[in-house]
Write a structure and sequence with these properties.
This protein is α+β, with helices and mostly antiparallel strands. The protein is built from 8 helices and 12 strands. It folds into 2 domains: 33 residues, no CATH class; 249 residues, 4-Layer Sandwich (Deoxyribonuclease I, Chain A), CATH 3.60.10.10. The strands form 2 sheets. Strands 1-4-5-3-2-12-11 form a 7-stranded mixed sheet. It has a 5-stranded mixed sheet with strand order 6-7-8-9-10, covered by helices on one side. Helix 4 runs parallel beside helix 5 and helix 6 packs parallel to helix 7.
């Protein structure tokens, strides 16, 4: 063949099209990759293919730092009673509302029943899922139970936002987030909240979910203990510490914070037959009077973790 037609290039010789086909290369690719499903229109197929080129928002968000997402009061605020010398707290990993297996659809009603059973002043939740549909499942739980809410996003999940939450009978006067991530692969954060009765009595609560790696967990504990909440005033650290064996992180917590007088931490994982004490409560300028696991039939079905409850006696910091 002598000369090529206008618009044709030798670099297209490897195509199986006729050399007389002058269709631009970009359009050729679109035609060649367009595969329509059963009953799918050409327009719908083109839209589906174009959406693949849009950056994955969830993946971009996973690389961002944890952030504070919600701080709110219940719709109907009950009368706030004075905070006594002893407060009740709990920590509970709700497993993304997906039950024991983690494979079922999110159903917060199971965890709602357990939180209602706990009947504590402050509860810290881990692996909390706020779905993309915006149905306010977490907020509706707080409205029904008359609890104030603070929620911090640790990372994005395919179903929505995933993070830590603090639910309190007492108003939340301040909240912040601590980024304790030590790698871009494993995002971790801690949520802090100052709660009080409005009559001058307050204490701090920190909700966290620590790393599975011992060395990383030690660094996270060091970062947490530098927070101002652990410098003055009574405060509690609540969370899934992933302390499945003795390590430097738990040793540091034991040395720096108040621990309970029981011989062993109560086992809380797995919920069906607990053998590991992953969920723990520590205190600063406060005394842990009692720590126990909340083991009921509803708690064993709602998550792969059982809640851990503690009674804390608030102690005023020494005068400078």
């Amino acid at each position: 063949m002598g000369k090529f037609p206008i618009g044709y290039s030798r670099r297209f010789d490897n195509s199986r099209r006729s050399p007389l086909d002058t269709t631009p290369m970009a359009q050729r690719k679109k035609k060649s990759t367009l595969k329509r499903g059963a009953g799918e229109s050409r327009k719908a197929a083109l839209r589906r293919i174009s959406l693949r080129a849009i950056p994955n928002v969830a993946r971009l968000a996973e690389r961002s730092a944890p952030f504070l997402s919600v701080v709110r009061a219940p719709r109907e605020t009950p009368g706030v009673s004075a905070m006594g010398d002893v407060v009740s707290v709990a920590t509970y990993n709700v497993h993304r509302w997906m039950g024991v297996s983690g494979r079922s659809a999110p159903d917060p009603t199971r965890a709602h029943a357990v939180i209602s059973e706990l009947d504590v002043d402050v509860v810290a939740l881990q692996e909390v899922l706020r779905t993309q549909e915006g149905d306010g499942l977490l907020e509706s739980i707080c409205d029904r139970l008359g609890l104030h809410l603070a929620f911090a996003v640790t990372r994005m999940h395919k179903r929505g936002q995933l993070g830590n939450a603090i639910l309190s009978r007492f108003p939340i006067s301040a909240a912040s987030v601590i980024d304790i991530s030590n790698s871009r692969i494993e995002r971790r954060g801690a949520l802090t909240a100052q709660v009080g009765d409005g009559l001058g009595r307050t204490f701090g609560a920190v909700a966290t979910h620590l790393s599975l790696v011992d060395r990383t967990r030690k660094r996270q504990v060091t970062s947490l203990l530098k927070h101002p909440l652990f410098e003055a005033g009574p405060s509690v650290l609540l969370g899934d510490m992933n302390a499945w064996r003795r390590c430097e992180a738990t040793r540091t917590l034991r040395e720096e914070l108040e621990v309970h007088h029981n011989r062993d931490w109560p086992a809380s994982f797995p919920s069906g037959r607990p053998v590991l004490a992953l969920d723990r409560v520590y205190a600063h300028n406060a005394k842990l009077l009692e720590v126990h696991v909340h083991d009921t039939s509803s708690a064993r079905r709602a998550s792969d973790h059982l809640p851990v409850v503690a009674y804390v006696e608030l102690v005023s910091p020494p005068e400078p």
